[in-house]
Amino acid sequence: MTVRVRGYALPHGEYVDLYADGDRWTTDPVRGAELASGWLLPGLVDAHTHPGAEKPGDPLDEQLLRSHLNQHVDAGVTAVRSPGLAGEPPDWFGTDPDLPRAWHAGPWLAQHGQFFDGWGRRADHAALPAIAAAQAARTGWAKIIADWSVGDDPVPVEVLTAVVDAVHAVGGRVAVHTQHALGGVAAVTAGVDSVEHGMCLDPGLLTRMAEQGTALTPTLSAFQSMLPTVHSRPDSPVKEWLLGGASVHGDLVAAASEAGVRVLAGTDSVPHGRVLDEVRALAGAGMRPHDAIGAASWEARAYLGLGGLELGAPADAVVYREDPRLDLDQLAHPVAVILRGRRVR
């Protein structure tokens, strides 16, 4: 059945009246279209999620992958970016009409001796640029683990720079996991496309990130949720590092937004479908509610090359009874979820 959405559309707040013509929005009326009206968002995005595995090291499970993606749709998420998966996804990943659009970077790429056992691919520095470029040529993204635990050496800046050059040469983009200051310096200096987590990132790098278009996906809610557990651990260098970085991570997010860095909402957590937790965390850190919602909607969609509620754009939308900028809890209660021009919830 054809879908029609009508109401005040964010981010601009102007009144729109759109019909889905297949997977594209149009203003041409369609007789008998099912109407959903209210406050409209152009589809939510979880920009950092790893569906298909329950815990680190588990193999990719297709049944679990479908379940996790359904949880995202239930929350109004119409697109996901998976910077790292437990295995190569099935052909229906990102194309199934009932599940979110999807971008992924294949397996994580890490140095020998780092990252979770059973996950990702280890590579020598000399081989890393070619491996990353081959991955990005297939899926559009490569994900590098730039640093890992306390005392580990990060990927050198010259190696990350070579990775960026090789991936960009094939038209791809590079996402980098970093949670240490030196890894953050290397990632930003190399000009990566997105910094994932960014804990312990030097705030002095934020201006450069904004200028070169490096996005930040802070996964703030995941850090906040782990803090009570970290506090209860015995004293150790790892505890000191986690507490020192996670406790001020919200301040970094607020400073990044103020500096003009594109902040993306990503959950990096189980259960899936909890992007609202990240929006709340971003707003609680000091981002304007408008910008916190944008990080999970129009800003993330623009970053992935998706349009909003406009003529010719992909026909995704989430409908709410009230303006979610005035009450973030509205995000937990969508009236309708429209995906690829179909009402799926």
UniProtKB/TrEMBL annotation:
Any Pfam family hit: Amidohydro_1
Domain Amidohydrolase-related: 40-342
Superkingdom per UniProt: Bacteria
Record keyword Hydrolase present: yes
GO molecular function, one term: hydrolase activity, acting on carbon-nitrogen (but not peptide) bonds
InterPro entries per record: Amidohydro-rel, Metal-dep_hydrolase_composite, Metal_Hydrolase, Metallo-dep_Hydrolase
Keywords: Hydrolase
Name of the protein in question: Amidohydrolase family protein
Top-level taxonomy: Bacteria, Bacillati, Actinomycetota, Actinomycetes, Pseudonocardiales
